[in-house]
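Field notebook, page 565. I keep forgetting to write these up properly, so this time I am using the form the group agreed on. The chain and the ligand, guanosine-5'-triphosphate, are recorded exactly as supplied. Prediction of the bound pose follows.
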Amino acid sequence: MNNLVAADGVATVTPLCIVAVGKESVGKSQLISSLAGVEAGETNFRGSTVAVQRYVTSQAVYIDTPGILRHSDTETTRRALTELNQHDSVLLVVQATQLDDDLHDMLPLVRGKNGAVVVTFWDQVQPGEAALEALERLSKDCGVPFVAVDARNLRPTDHQRIAQALFRQDEFVKEGLTARAGWRIEPKPGWLEHRIIGPLLAMTLLILPAVATIWGANTFAGLLHPVVEGVIEPLIAWVDTQGPAWLRLVLTARHGNFGYGLLNMGPFLLVWALPTVVLFAVILGAYKASGLVERMNVALHPIVRPFGLSGRDIVRVMMGFGCNVPAVISTRACSGCSRGTAISAIAFGAACSYQLPATLAVLAAAAQSTGRSATLLSVVFLGYLLLTTLVYLRLTSPTAARSSLNVLMTPSRPFMQWPTWRALWREASGTVTQFFRQALPIFAAICVIASLLAWMGVLELCSSGLAPVLRPFDLPEQVALPIIVAAIRKDGIFLLAKDDGLAFPMTAGQVLTAVYLAGVLLPCLVTALTIGRETSWRSTGLLLLRQAGFACLFALILAWGGHWL
Ligand SMILES: Nc1nc2c(ncn2[C@@H]2O[C@H](COP(=O)(O)OP(=O)(O)OP(=O)(O)O)[C@@H](O)[C@H]2O)c(=O)[nH]1
Ligand SMILES: [Mg+2]
């Protein structure tokens, strides 16, 4: 007797645990979420699922696993195989467009288990008599039922057929089939596959989010700034003159020219960071949901390989510009040989949605006080960050990762599709919610703690302690505090600015050095903890030391080269 569930939904014994396995991007998550009746994420790049997820329904427990990349050492593949080994009931998901290849690669892994095969992307195949006969042949040869579906639009009849197929608990009897589907459908190559135009276009798409941030989000923020300021200034004046001492301490605390208070700093964060966060989420969401990101990876692979990264890693580094934490977690889908380099790249060079606006706001303030162009300063900063990240990766990545024998582990070109408004909305609203729930409270806490520390004189002590260390960088001692705060949370860089200008006098070169050092010396605390959890605490300690060392070296070069600027 087995512990199966009847298709009519009446559980006979305990619910059946069904583990869905398959190669990357074949539609496992889409299928499982449709079966379980929950909304699917609409990402479209390989290795989007990085953790095993369980969906409990009244009929069964569906287990969604990360995609298996054969002949690879990715953490995601290891997790999927471990989960597969723990269960006997399997839903093997294969893609109709590459049916023979998928079966050839996956059947050896599920031999001896019970279950069924679901063939996704059936909408991409001409579903005639011949195709259905081919499925019938494959099913007979394999020993288990085959159900062909469009996983994005699962009909009630599809649900029923899949449930019935699983209910039969037939055994996967063969490792290799003699029958063949005989077709393979490849998406058409586009501009990104062009030998010369492809890499150029991919590079342009790669820097587009940063450019959009500088011009788009900043222009918007610039318009919004005076409006918000008009509301905040009278409020600050009121708190300063009428408010009780404790409220002044929290909301409008100042130390000389240096404003730490929640009201001095809070609007800055909202006005400058929010447009960046939203714009970045929408652009990255469009890249992911359309399949563009995957094609960019292929085009970028030869360019990034000399730096120890693979094309697959680039999307993770890009995600780091949103927030480093999910980006670090998503490197589970990277090859073991380049994962460390990808994490280094995220921790060092991926200026997150809090760091970038804070940096740009400070540079805008510096432009105002020094009479330089804000755009020039921003471009110099981003250019230097890119250059030093590449030098850092080149010098620290393992030789094996840079070998020209490293081919990209992407089995086939993905299908492109227009991103739906829903996918963009989900990406943007998810990020904004995260921003309000996670970033804002921490930011508020930092403001309050900074106010209290300033009031207790601790900051003065720290600043004077760090001042001699900062002297070789040609930086004033007040820079010590933003550097310390930025090691906890990157928006601490905002402390270099106040209201409309710089918090204390500095030259353009000094500001560039200060924001560089505060941004790169260490990743934020949450990122460092995530790296520790994902890898090991010892290697994280070494990574942080190495990053701090290189950051100091590059900052010294910038400080003395900055004189020229
Ligand atoms: N046309 C079509 N698209 C599909 C189908 N199933 C999934 N997709 C799309 O394919 C993309 C990848 O789907 P996922 O469900 O994330 O694939 P996955 O197997 O979970 O991928 P990983 O977790 O990265 O291994 C998404 O954009 C889906 O909308 C299908 O049957 N037809
Ligand atoms: Mg998935």
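OBSERVATIONS:
- The first strand starts at residue 16 and ends at 22.
- The chain has 21 helices and ten strands.
FOLLOW-UP: compare against the apo run.
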